[in-house]
Specification:
Blueprint lengths: L9 E4 L4 H12 L5 E4 L14 E4 L5 H7 L5 E4 L10 H19 L3 E7 L11 H13 L4 E6 L1 E2 L7 H5 L2 E4 L7 E4 L1 H12 L6 E6 L4 E2 L1 H12 L4 E4 L2 H10 L4 H15 L18 H8 L5
Parallel strand pairs: 1-2, 1-4, 2-3, 4-5, 5-6, 6-10, 7-9, 8-12
Antiparallel strand pairs: 9-11
Helix pairs in contact: 1-6, 2-3, 3-4, 7-10, 8-9
The structure holds NADP nicotinamide-adenine-dinucleotide phosphate.
The site of NADP nicotinamide-adenine-dinucleotide phosphate (NAP) has 26 residues, from helix 1, strand 5 and strand 7.
């Protein structure tokens, strides 16, 4: 018997990413044949290759994005991170403009956008300003759009693995500053719930993970899970800049990253409060046990 969901066209950007890969898996399990927009189809898991439609290309190609989203009932849009030199805020804004054009020209029924806590500031939060611009561009389409303002991804800790092995979690944030930390996989679940449900208008929904954590608290959890003594250490913004530059990032990229902590660590109160709707289940301990402990 044909599954009625196969008639829906749902387009997924960054389908191999932390969030996008979960979105694809759940759509398949919901009986949907998703359309994946990605640069390199060889990265699609062999087990799902025959169950998806593929549009190959770069999200920076506006015509391609329009083509990929023709007759789409749903779109999961991610501003892909800039991988080359250049201003990350302008890069995100350019991606957002491509999304907005496609949503408008194709009258996409519902769009879920992966945004961030801090986008409500609109300006002064580093590269999050580019996500804020994307929110505005999508809002201007007057289409049905939902912005998921997500907390700090657990997966950011992969970048800290070398120093975690040496017993340090360095950060430009005050180590006792509580903030929302979230498993990107749980974000994917909310994306799919929203893509498959019936709503209209322009909405914001935060995704906060199970609890607010400080960097000290994170170091404590990681110590237990990884069986190492790890301490959180606050470093100056300049020391942070230095470490990002030595990792090969351009000056503009460095400022885009440093600007996030500078803009959100003082006098910032998130517009969206934690509630049952914003709270997701996976704890940092469970995530770290699965993903960091094997790599320690
Ligand atoms: N990290 C955080 O704490 C946080 C918090 C809130 C919001 N966010 C937002 O979340 C997004 C990242 O999500 P994620 O972690 O799920 O992604 P991710 O795992 O970093 O994956 C990014 C994907 O983007 C693809 N990509 C890069 N440039 C592309 C382009 N020009 N065209 C098409 N695809 C491209 C990459 O695929 P290939 O390289 O294989 O082509 C990759 O699959 C960003 O917009 C970020 O601002 C992050």
């Amino acid at each position: 018997m044909a599954n009625e969901n196969t008639r829906r066209k749902i387009v997924v950007t960054t389908p191999t990413g932390h969030v996008g890969s979960r979105v694809v898996r759940l759509l398949l399990q919901a009986g949907i044949r998703p359309t994946l927009l990605l640069r390199d189809p060889t990265k699609i898991d062999a087990a799902i290759r025959d169950r998806v439609d593929v549009v190959q290309g770069d999200q920076g190609d506006a015509d391609l994005v329009v083509r990929a989203t023709r007759n789409a009932d749903g779109l999961f849009w991610v501003d892909p991170p800039a991988t080359t030199d250049g201003d990350p805020v302008a890069h995100y804004a350019e991606m957002g403009a491509n999304a907005a054009r496609a949503v408008m020209e194709n009258t996409v029924t519902r769009t879920v956008f992966l945004s961030s806590v801090g986008a409500e500031k609109r300006h002064g939060a580093g590269e999050i300003d580019g996500l804020a611009r994307t929110e505005e561009l999508l809002n201007d389409t007057a289409a049905n759009v939902l912005h998921l303002r997500c907390g700090y991804f657990f997966t950011n800790l992969f970048m800290s693995l070398p120093e975690l092995r040496a017993g340090v979690l360095s950060t430009p944030w005050p180590v006792d500053h509580p903030m929302a930390w979230v498993d990107p996989r749980d974000i994917g679940e909310i994306v799919v719930a929203r893509l498959l449900s019936d709503w209209s208008g322009t909405h914001v929904q935060a995704v906060h993970g199970p609890e607010d954590l400080t960097f000290s608290g994170v170091a404590e959890i990681l110590s237990q899970v990884m069986g190492l003594r790890i301490r959180a250490e606050r470093i100056s913004d300049d020391a942070f800049r230095g470490s990002l530059r030595s990792a090969g990032l351009s000056d503009e990229q460095v400022e885009g990253i440093v600007g996030m902590s500078v803009g959100l660590r003082e006098n910032f109160v998130a517009a969206d409060e934690r509630s049952v709707v914003t709270t997701t289940p996976t704890t940092l301990a469970a995530w770290a046990y699965a993903h960091l402990r094997p790599a320690r």
